[in-house]
Structure formats: structure tokens, C-alpha cells
Design goal:
Layout (H helix, E strand, L loop, with lengths): L4 E5 L3 H13 L3 E6 L2 H11 L3 E5 L7 H9 L5 E6 L4 H9 L3 E4 L4 H12 L1
Parallel strand pairs: 1-2, 1-3, 3-4, 4-5
Length: 119
């Protein structure tokens, strides 16, 4: 499995910390953290991660808008997590060539998603 350089995006410091711990335990390098949609756009350009793991509900720029903006200049691998996953969201995220996972995911589900996108 290719080791990813990740940018973690969540307005919750606790969620960023727990996600970072898990990903680093798996050997991935977390090269940055962002707190909202505008912050991720800036840091994505600065840090050039190979993958973004992002909350979809966040201040200043929601996840769908963030993905659309990033897709305008980059085809980076993106996983978004949301507490509400419905057909419309899945279709929107999939159309934008990203993956959506339900929030409060188990560690093995996140690991499998990162592995799948790392291929």
C-alpha cells in the first residue's frame, strides 16, 4: 500500500487529533490540518497532500463547495465524512470523484477507504 501524505480537515480539534493518531499509526504522514473549507483550499495549495480527509459540514465553505473548488485545479484523492449520508449526498460526492463515509466510522472502515484510494 502506498503511504499517503494527508491533510485532515475538521472544525473539531479532538476529531482531527484522533484521526491523525490513527493515520500515523498506519504509517501515513499527516502533513497538515485545516479547520474549515477556506482553510483547506489554502493549505491544499501550500502543502500539496496526496489525499484529503475532510468533514463535510464545516464553517465558511461546506464540503461539497470545497470539493468543487479543489476539482477546478486538482484531482487529489478526497474522502469526506458526514453524520448525514443520503442518496443525494452520495451522488454529489461521487460525481465529484470523492468518497463519502458516515461519521463516527470504525477505524477499519477508514483504513479500508484510505487503502482503496491509495491504489
Amino acid at each position: 500500500m502506498e503511504k499517503e501524505t494527508l491533510l485532515i480537515v475538521d472544525d473539531s480539534k479532538f476529531a482531527r487529533h484522533k484521526t491523525k493518531e490513527l493515520l500515523e499509526e498506519l504509517g501515513h504522514e499527516v502533513i497538515g490540518e485545516a479547520v474549515d473549507g477556506l482553510d483547506v483550499i489554502k493549505k491544499c495549495k501550500e502543502l500539496a497532500p496526496s489525499m484529503i480527509l475532510s468533514d463535510i459540514e464545516m464553517p465558511n465553505f461546506d464540503g461539497i463547495s470545497m470539493i468543487k473548488e479543489i476539482r477546478s485545479y486538482n484531482n487529489i484523492k478526497i474522502i469526506v465524512v458526514s453524520s448525514i449520508v443520503n442518496t443525494q449526498m452520495i451522488q454529489s460526492v461521487t460525481y465529484l470523484k470523492a468518497v463519502v463515509l458516515k461519521k463516527h466510522i470504525k477505524a477499519h472502515t477508514l483504513v479500508n477507504a484510505v487503502k482503496l484510494l491509495s491504489r
